[in-house]
Amino acid sequence: MVLKNEIENVDTTRSIKPKSELNVTHKGKYRPKTNINNKYIPVISLFFAILITVSVGVLIYTSTSNMSNLFTHKTILDNPELLHALQAAQASGVTMAIHGWEHENYSEMSPDQAIVDLKKSEAVFKQAGLKSELFVSPYEIFGVPDNPEVVEAIKKEGIAVGTLGEPIYEYTWLWRNMTSFDDPIFQAASAEIRTNKPIVIVLHAQDWNKYTEQFLISYLISTNEKDITVRMDDVNQATPKEVINDAAKFTQYKSVSKVVFAIIPSGVYGPDDPVVYNIKVNDIMKFYFLFFIIIALLPLSFFVVWRLLSSWNKRKYKNDPQTEINARYPDLVSVLVPAYNEEKSIGRCIEALVCQDYGGPMEIIVIDDGSSDRTAKIISTYPVKFIDLKKNGGKANALNRGIEEAKGDILVFTDSDSNMVKDTISCLVKTLMDDSDAQMVTGTVLINPTFRRSRIIIQTFLLENCKYCNSLLNF
Fold first, then answer.
1. From 131, 370, 405, 414, which residue has the greatest number of CB atoms within 10 Å?
2. Can you give the pTM of this predicted structure?
3. For position 323, what pLDDT does the model report?
């Protein structure tokens, strides 16, 4: 068996640890191997897989003008008829106001959060061809957040805040369910508005119907006021174009000085965009979408990158024009032979090693593990590095001692009762160096203890970093 010398001390309880990179020769000169170490390929693959997954996720998230478009949440840009109606209303003199991004409570937001939402709204307004001249805060009759820092932050963006003028009244809330002009609520509001003489009248797009329209027309025709502002809140992507067209006509009345549409660019969630435990379904869908991207793309990217790196590593090793496979050798090959009471076979084993046809530098280290016969004396007669342990400590101990003395880049292990054929070392080294993935090589073992009367062929296949060499070890 042969393996690359990437070990400190090896025993039966310790694992192999890296020691040094293998050097190979080119035209007689040694150079370091330039391939990626195989043990780093999974780490590199994971890094690139994470990078690819994050990049694709960010690209998908940012390339959409609004992530909500992928699910139930939409913007006014998704309703072309509404968009054309708003553009026509703006051309007729209607002021367009931002009414939050998703109808948030700006009194409870930080200035930074408010600006983030404001910029998203401005981006939609710009794409829709609308001028964002005013900000009207949701949940506030005056359209001004209670937080003065938020108000100041919005003003710094060059946008006015709230609706000027007093008194401000809201008469038509929940009139969407009204069914008759004789409704007491309608009659009471008709009398009340003439008493209040409001400067600003607030209504809501979702409450627009023939009763709301008639209520306002009757008052605007009969009043002597000249500077009335009509503000329609909650215009969103679900608002019918007819509501916009009807409300825009208020600019034609002499009593009206301004008509304001407070627009929610992304719409508000309601029956068509429900919540689950106070979490919007839209946000849940976003999470699942990104989660799917991660669990699907991460392992796929990891596998693809791993395969590409492994293939590139092999091709680079085999096709490197600077590499001459037949002429390259490691700096040194160390052959380790542990022996204990092997006086009958140790000589034949060493002679087989000395007679190898391997052309590169090689050292033979024989470790006598406290033999009580003539093993040590026989070893001493050969030109090998001899380690005499005196006391028997077991094969693992003998190998550890030999590894400490070994200087080679490749270690070859053989038993002292084995007899290698002439090309065994050459075959083992070539097989190991031809495949950059191989860290260990073994071969066919022929056991022939009785002058070739019987042969038992044992083929040993080691783990994934092991190669098989078609050479023979005779016992």
1. 414
2. 0.47
3. 47
